[in-house]
Structures are given as C-alpha cells and as structure tokens.
Design goal:
The complex is a heterodimer of chains A (307) and B (373). Chain A is mainly α and 307 residues long. Helices cover 75% and strands 0% of the residues of chain A. Chain A is built from 13 helices and no strands. Helix content of chain B is 61%, strand content 9%. The chains are: A mainly alpha (307), B alpha+beta (373).
C-alpha cells in the first residue's frame, strides 16, 4: 500500500509539470499584461515595474525562473495586489474556502446518503419519488439561482440569516453559503446512493443476512451500506477538490473573502503569478484527493488491492 | 372449391427511431417537457415581435415598476407624471382633471406661454396626443388636453425602465440559440475526435485520449476564461469557444461506443461476409452511435445554457444592452432587496427550461436504450 501511494505521488509530478507548463504558456500568449490597466501607467513606471518582476526577460527564462521558484515553494508576488505574495493571499483565503467547502461536503455526504437510502428502501413508493424529485431539482437549479433565492427567503423575507458577508466566520454567516454549495452535491449523492443501495440490497450476502434473521437496521447499516458506499467514495474525490478550492459564484454572491474569486479576477487582470498559483493549488487538491479516494477504496472494499 | 386466401396480419416492422418515438410518446413527463420546450422556443423566437415594447426601450418614468396585469400609469401616478412634465415647462398648474382617458390641465405663468411647451407632455411616458384646448387672451394661461398612454408591463420593468417581459423573451432567444449552437459545435468536434480515436485504435487512440486526459485535468473555468480573454467579449466567438470546451465528454463517450461496437458480433459477421470498412461504418457503427449522441446532446444543451449564464453572471458573457437569462439573473440577484421580480421571472424561465431539457434527455435515454426493451 505504501509503495502504491509512493508510486502515485511520483506519477503526479509529470502531470503537475504538464499542467503548470500549459497554464504558463496559455496565460502568456493571451493579449495584454498585468500593467496594462485602463487608467494607463506612464511608460517609464510600467517599464520599471516590468523590469522589477522580470517580465522583460525572454519567455523561456521567465518560465525557468518560475519553475525554480515553484520548486522552492515560492509562488511569487501578486502583480495586482503588490502588498501580498501569492502565498499570503492563499494563507488568508484558503482556510475560509476550505471551511465552507468541507462543511458543505460533509453535509452533502451525510444528508445525501440518508436520502438515497430512504429512497432505495422505499423503491417506487412515495418516499422514493419525493427524493428523486428533490434530487432532480437540486441538480438542475444552478447555484446562481439558488444563492439569491436563499438570500431572498432566509435573509430578506424571514430575516433568519445575514444576506452576506463573512462576519469573522460566525456560524450564522456560513449557513447560506454552505447550504448553496451543498444542495447540488446532496442531489448527486442521493442519486448515487439510491442506485448503488438498490443494487447492494439485491446481492446474495444481504439475502443471507436477512435469512439469518438480522434486523432491518443491521442489514442496511452494517452490511448493505458497505457495498453501496463505493460510488460515493469515488464521487468524493473530485467533489472535494472542487468544493474546497472555493466557488466563484457563492463567494461573490455572499461576499465571502475566499479564494474562489482569485482565479477569475487574476485571469482578467493578467495577474500571472496568482493565476498560476490557483492552477497549482487546484491541481494539487485534485491529485491528493483522487489519491485519498483510491486508498479509501481499498479500505472499504477488501477486493481492491494495490500491490 | 373455395379459395382460401390467407391474409396474414400485416406486421409492420418498427425502425429503431419509430420504436424510440413510440416509447418516448408513452413517457408523459418527457412529452410534456417536449411541448413545454417547443412553447418556450416559439415564445422566445416570435414573442419579442408581439410585445409592444422593444427590449432596449427605456421608459424613464417607469423605473422598477412591479409587475402588474393592469395598465400603467396607475391612477395615482397620473398626478406625479403631470406635475413632473409641467415642472419641465417651468409653469405652474392652476387646475387639472381627468375625463375618461383624457387629461385636462390648465397652467399659468407670469410670462406668456409658448405653444411649443406642449411637447413636454408628449415626452412623458404617460401622455400622448397633447393639444391646446384654449388660451387666455393675455397668453398667461393655457388649457391643454392629453390622452393617457396605457401601457402594460406584465413582468414589470428593470432598473433603467425597460420592459422585463420583452427582455426575458429576448434573453430566451439568446440563451437557447447559444445552447443549441455551442451544443452542436461540441457534438461535432467530440464525435469526429472520438470516432477517429476509437477507429484508429492502438497507438493513435492512446495518444489522442491522453490529450483529452490532460485537457480534462486543467481546471475547466481556467479554460473558459482563457477563451474569453483570447476572443474578447465577442458573443458568437464566445459560444463557439464554449462549445469547443465541452467536447471532451462527447469524445470519450463516442470513443467508448465506437470501440465496443467494433467488437460486436454483428460487425465481425459483416467483416466475415467481406463488407468493407466503409460499409460497416455506414450500416452499423453510425446508426448505433446516434443514440448516445442524441441523448448526450439533450443533456449538453442545458449544460451550455448554465455555462453561458455563469459567464454572463461574472460579466464575461453577453454584454448590455443585449441580454441573456444569465445577465438578467445576475441583475436580479443584485436587486433582490428592492425588486425581486427582476430575479424571479428570468430564474423561472431558466430553471423550467433546464428541467424540461433534463426530462426530455432522460426520456430519450430510456427510449433509445436497447437493453431496456
């Protein structure tokens, strides 16, 4: 197992390298630069700034420099927020996004699994149809509709939640964003769980367990769940990577100072280092979570072995 | 001897598509959704010509009017509108009254009143056909009449006083057009790429699919934003670009299908009978590929619409005064406190369309699935 993890981490390096290279050159061939603002800088100042950040060097040299810095864990300074390095920006924003994303993910996994199981146990009955309807709604309605509707209902009409803002991480400020992030994921988990639970309940060992006279609770929770949880495990990898690295929409609508907006803002302002930083962070999250998921697979399902 | 004419009951074979259509027709949710989509499509395409307001016309007197089934101006708004217009004439109201749809107003001033002043009443969005009824001999008092212009704003008006109904319909036109066009682009690229990879097999397939894997691992938003950065905010190019990003799934699906169809026994049989590559492609592979492609396309269109709305929401997509559901929703989201209809109407149109597309997609999947007969 350890050897497998080690090998996977080794193969992640070329993947990361390709991603960094592609992102670097894609970003650079795009027209414009970090200091071409609308209220133009005087040419001398612009030249000085570009010289300071080494933007006048040939592209390959900049690339080599960037890779060298990256290997030393240095993401460089942000061009558009000159008081901060990219590392500082992430140190500030990432904990916020991770908190929201993790809460949403846990909520989605718990609630989605429960709903999916309820649907599977009541297949083609009212409970099932209700869950299916909810799941369809949850996966069809886009986030940028859910978020303002939550603000409208809970914030303005019933005055239960603040409309937005982070409020230094007060619980009440997190409810809206977490709910918005979680709803589509709940729908997906419920659907997956329903399908795999129906299949799992049909398998032989469940029939045996029932024949042995085990209680419904014990059959479902101890035996069927273990077989049914595999699709959920593989869903968790990419979902976690996406949720923990912040959502532009949710963070914009609820005015959350997370990392979700960095990407869009940085790409539009040609803040090269910040864009690259975001790409690297997202890629690392994706790789790590996919690895964790594959390891979890072996834990949940003893038939899966990595030798 | 009697002639025994055996009239065998005519067995009409059903083609794949005939069968699928029959199965789809039996699916109530899918059929209802299909009719709903047709309705939304017709209303969006032809509706803007029948709504009395242009989607760009600004009614300065009707900013943020709530939706209403009765006509504007409301009775209590006439006085305000009148006062506003008269103020512009720089004269004072002496007396005004309403008779039916006519308004009579007498104004007085310390200086003789110019006849051309009546244009201020015409300029107001509330009045029309202003005439001078009578004038006092010294020209210091004038009585004017104007008819009240009845206007309906069924969905209300937006922040600049534009009719939300015509804007929502116009937005529907754009959103649906983008969905279809980008969907077709994605399907065409995906099918060609996937089929090429699936048919070539071996090393070529390996390389082609590794490229897809690499593109997959780049964050999706990064891609889209890079395209927007490259193509600027040009709207045709943008949705071509969106289509060009979404072909990855299609390519994977088509490749998988092509690989599995090639290994089917009927293809082997055809090969054994000496039918060429081309014949197999036309007779066996393409018809069998069409099912998944059609299903995926119906699921792709809502994805594109969401993506376009998402970009417009961020301000990267459609630019004012042109509009799309995403643009309208983003405006609505910023005004939920004061004018929630700006969010609710476009959101209803978008969400119901997405629902309908999903139901049709699911229905088609059930109808075209050969294992489910």
């Amino acid at each position: 197992m350890l050897r497998y993890v080690f090998r996977r981490l080794l193969t992640a390096i070329p993947t990361l390298f390709v991603i960094v290279t592609m992102a670097f050159f894609l970003m650079r061939v795009a027209p414009g630069g970090p200091f071409n603002q609308e209220r133009g800088l005087s040419p001398e100042i612009k030249a000085n700034l570009e010289a300071q950040f080494g933007l006048n060097d040939p592209l390959w040299l900049q690339y080599v420099h960037y890779l060298g810095n990256l290997l030393r864990g240095n993401f460089g300074p942000s061009y558009n927020m000159p008081d901060f390095t990219v590392t500082e920006l992430f140190a500030k924003g990432l904990p916020i996004s991770v908190q929201l994303g993790a809460s949403a993910l846990i909520l989605a996994l718990l609630l989605g699994s429960v709903l999916g199981t309820i649907a599977a146990l009541n297949q083609n009955k009212l409970g099932d149809y209700t869950v299916i309807a909810l799941a369809t709604a949850g996966s069809t309605i886009p986030t940028f509709v859910i978020a303002p509707v939550i603000q409208l209902l809970f914030g303005l009409t019933w005055r239960l939640l603040p409309i937005g803002g982070w409020g230094d991480g007060a619980f009440i400020n997190k409810v809206g964003p977490v709910l918005t992030l979680a709803l589509p994921q709940i729908a997906i988990v419920a659907r997956l769980m329903r399908g795999s639970m129906i299949e799992s309940l049909r398998s032989h060992h469940i029939r045996t367990a029932r024949a042995l006279g085990l209680s419904d609770w014990s059959v479902v929770v101890k035996h069927a769940l273990r077989g049914a949880i595999l699709p959920i495990v593989s869903f968790t990898g990419p979902a976690a990577a996406a949720l923990l690295t912040g959502s532009v929409i949710v963070e914009t609508i609820f005015s959350i100072p997370g990392v979700g907006r960095y990407f869009v803002d940085a790409a539009l302002n040609r803040d090269y280092t910040l864009v690259m930083g975001t790409v690297v962070v997202i890629a690392i999250f994706t790789i790590v979570f996919n690895l964790i998921v594959d390891v979890m697979y072996a834990v949940v399902d003893p038939r899966v072995r990595y030798d | 001897m009697t002639d025994i004419t055996a009239t065998a009951p005519a067995i009409v074979g059903r083609s794949l598509w005939g069968d699928a259509w029959a199965r789809l027709k039996a699916n109530r949710a899918a059929m209802f959704s299909l009719y709903y989509l047709i309705l939304i499509g017709v209303v969006s395409v032809f509706g803007p010509w029948f709504v009395p307001h242009q989607y760009t016309t600004i009614y300065a007197d009707y900013v943020r009017m709530p939706p209403s089934l009765s006509a504007y101006p409301k009775p209590d708004m006439i006085e305000t509108a009148l006062a506003e217009a008269i103020k512009r004439m720089r004269v004072d109201i002496k007396e005004w009254h309403q008779e039916g749809s006519q308004v009579f107003v007498t104004v007085k001033s310390t200086k003789p009143i110019d006849d051309r002043n009546i244009r201020y009443l015409d300029r107001s969005d509330a009045f029309d056909d202003t005439k001078i009824e009578s004038k006092s001999p010294d020209g210091l008092e004038v009585t004017m009449s104007a008819s009240v212009k009845q206007q309906y704003f069924l969905f209300g008006t937006d922040n600049t006083g534009r009719d939300l109904l015509s804007r929502t319909l116009m937005a529907g036109r754009i959103s649906l057009a983008i969905g279809l066009l980008a969907g077709i682009v994605a399907v065409v690229i995906g099918v060609i790429y996937g089929a090429a990879a699936g048919f070539s097999g071996g090393k070529v397939d390996e390389v082609m699919m590794r490229i897809v894997d690499v593109l997959y691992s780049l964050p999706f938003i990064f891609f889209v934003i890079m395209l927007v950065v490259f193509f600027g905010r040009n709207f045709v190019l943008m949705f071509l670009a969106v289509g060009a990003v979404l072909w990855l799934d299609m390519a994977r699906i088509v490749r998988g299908q092509a690989l599995s169809i090639r290994r089917q026994e009927y293809v082997q049989a055809a090969e054994a009978m000496g039918i060429g590559q081309r014949g197999i492609l036309v007779r066996h592979v393409i018809p069998n590929l069409l099912g998944p492609v059609v299903i995926y396309m119906t699921l792709l269109v809502p994805q594109v619409i969401i993506l376009e709305s998402f970009l417009s929401f961020l301000g990267l997509g459609i630019q004012e005064p042109m509009t799309s559901w995403g643009v309208l929703i983003s405006v609505g989201a910023k005004n939920i406190g004061t004018a929630n209809w700006l969010l609710l109407f476009p959101a209803f149109f978008l969400v119901s369309t997405l629902f309908a597309l999903n139901f049709v997609g699911d229905g088609l999947r059930d109808a075209l699935d050969p294992r489910d007969r």
